[in-house]
Automatic annotation (TrEMBL):
<dbReference type="InterPro" id="IPR003439">
    <property type="entry name" value="ABC_transporter-like_ATP-bd"/>
</dbReference>
<dbReference type="GO" id="GO:0005524">
    <property type="term" value="F:ATP binding"/>
</dbReference>
<protein>
    <submittedName>
        <fullName>ABC transporter ATP-binding protein</fullName>
    </submittedName>
</protein>
<dbReference type="Pfam" id="PF00005">
    <property type="entry name" value="ABC_tran"/>
</dbReference>
<dbReference type="InterPro" id="IPR003593">
    <property type="entry name" value="AAA+_ATPase"/>
</dbReference>
<keyword id="KW-0067">ATP-binding</keyword>
<dbReference type="InterPro" id="IPR027417">
    <property type="entry name" value="P-loop_NTPase"/>
</dbReference>
<keyword id="KW-0547">Nucleotide-binding</keyword>
<feature type="domain" description="ABC transporter">
    <location>
        <begin position="5"/>
        <end position="228"/>
    </location>
</feature>
<dbReference type="InterPro" id="IPR017871">
    <property type="entry name" value="ABC_transporter-like_CS"/>
</dbReference>
């Protein structure tokens, strides 16, 4: 398994305050990596650096062997922000066909992506009339068109019911099995166990980078939420 993302000594300032303090990690190809951490810990900032839309103070981010944000990566990286990025005045199908057309792809690709996120029955509806959870899935469908090699998803399951969340996670793993790399942020600990690997971030620092099983073993608990808390306490003792 190769490396899809390599982050080295990444320091980022936002609003003249340092919010990432030297992050180093590698993310393997063809896997689902979860980026977990409390609100404000720096998940979105790290994601933005990976996608190449974040000004960085120092350090390096390499994606699929190229500097993050470089032009050849544009068709290979799908990014879904927390705010759905679809057109409210177009239907689900029109949105998907528009994004497919930008990549030189046809209606079949668009329809497949819509079905993949469970929106086939709502494909004719205007996005502006969808529920919040449906709108997020419409945005996800558009990012999945063209089978990008890397899919970066910022809290993709917020607002989804348990059945849909399970379906989406199953789909993420199917994509990973087919070779796609997924980086998925969440602050919901019960989703952490669904990932192949976890990056645990707190206050702009990585405090865990391993498989869920290894993190549970290291922390001496089966409960990932408790494991995260123990890692935080250990850190605080080390730095006290
Ligand atoms: N545009 C901005 N200008 C200044 N500071 C910002 C900006 N965006 C985020 N920050 C700060 O950067 C830090 C990290 O924010 P970030 O959005 O990366 O956290 P997060 O872990 O994604 O949070 P959440 O789970 O709430 O989305 C926070 O302290 C936040 O206040």
């Amino acid at each position: 398994m190769g490396t899809a993302i390599e982050v080295r000594d990444l320091v980022v300032e936002r609003g003249r305050r340092e919010v990432l303090h030297g992050i180093t990690c590698t993310i393997p190809s063809g896997s689902v990596t979860g980026l977990l951490g409390p609100s404000g810990s720096g998940k979105t900032t790290l994601i933005r650096a990976v996608v190449g839309v974040q000004i960085v103070k120092s350090g390096e981010v390499t994606v699929l062997g190229r500097p993050a944000g470089s032009a050849p990566l544009r068709s290979q990286v799908g990014y879904v922000t927390q705010a759905p990025s679809v057109y409210a005045d177009l239907s689900v199908r029109e949105n998907a066909r528009y994004f497919a057309a930008l990549l030189g792809l046809g209606a079949a690709e668009a329809d497949r992506a819509i079905a993949d996120v469970g929106l086939a029955d709502a494909r004719g509806q205007l996005v502006g009339n969808l529920s919040g959870g449906q709108r997020s899935r419409a945005s996800l469908a558009c990012a999945m068109i063209g089978e990008p090699k890397l899919l970066v998803l910022d809290e993709p399951t917020v607002g989804q019911d348990p059945v849909l969340r399970a379906d989406l996670w199953a789909r993420f793993h199917e994509l990973a099995d087919a070779g796609t790399t997924l980086l998925v942020s969440s602050h919901v600990m019960d989703e952490a166990g669904r990932c192949d690997r976890l990056l645990l971030i707190r206050e702009g620092r990585l405090i865990g980078d391993d498989t869920p099983a290894a993190i549970r073993t290291a922390a001496g608990t089966d409960d990932l939420e408790e494991a995260f808390l123990r890692l935080i306490r250990e850190r605080e003792q080390v730095t006290a």
